[in-house]
Amino acid sequence: MTERIGIIGGGIVGIALARALVLRGAGEVTVFEKEQRLATHQTGRNSGVVHAGLYYAPGSLKATLCAAGRVSIREYCVEKGLPYREVGKLVVASDESELGALAEIERRSIANGVPDLVRLEGQAALRDIEPHVAGVAAVHSPHTAAVDYAAITEAMAQDVRAAGGSILLGSEVTAMTLEGAAVRVVTPTSEHTFDRVIACAGLQSDVVAKLVGAGWRVGDPVPHPVLLDVHRHVQGRYGVRFDSFALARYRDGRDGQAFHRDRDMRWLDETVIALLTLGARRPWLLRPRANRYAHELDHHGAVLDLAPGPGDLVVMGGGCQARWEHSVAKVRRPIGERISVQWRWTSGQGRPVQGASYRAPRHYSR
Length: 366
Prior knowledge:
single chain, alpha+beta, FAD/NAD(P)-binding domain, Jelly Rolls, five-stranded antiparallel sheet, four-stranded parallel sheet, 8 helices
């Protein structure tokens, strides 16, 4: 029996996955896209850069996939007659204080096999490439390119249809239910049954996840009584309320998060987040989002490592998300599993608090 596969999301990830499955004869593939055309969200709203591999740690999966993807996407654009412009990239050290960081980028680029990379010294050499640049040195990646990812998505969609796959536009998935070993998918105009459903919904992934029971709200059953105890303790200690709950698992030192803000939140100036660490101690870094906030840190803009351990609680609020970025750094040494328990206030109403960190009572540690 042919496997029936449903894919939710008509961005480049969902369409590329559908194309790979139908070309391999993996089953009957149907893609659901809630908009009236493909690639209307993240895929069609970015700079269109095809990265050459300057930044990623050598030997990492990101570096490997970046190098392979650069070659395959160029070949696909040539095959389909799509634009592929090798405009190049100039990574500039604006003054001598940035030469160390530039040297690290150069080292990574060479290790990752970035083609025809050139080191440039002096402003005159830089301006041969870009007349308006100012700096003391740079590395030039001449094969960094720009493409139209929406056009690539449309071309791959044609491949999907030609191979027998289906793409349903204007078909928002509103419900999913398990029926034995099958999954029933419901849209406003139709119902479908699949053996396997794959979510490629981008920024709507949380919405799709909630259709199958993911997520937690105050009043719902909690996984363990201790979590509800911590929930009450933090609310009372800081005078805030939380309306959502999440768990993040880091299996070992290879799992991490780059510097980021929770951009999905509409209320960064008011959002309160409490993070309880269970398991291994990991670097948890905090840095100003822009230079104008550097004076708020005692280290004049340096990265701070709070390094929370088992039972430690970090609370962010009162503009912390608007001003600062945070990261869970990867580590090379052997390290155990870490679970971050996160309470959030996301509805834009409540009493914000200033960013703070403190050690929770011992009974909150694992």
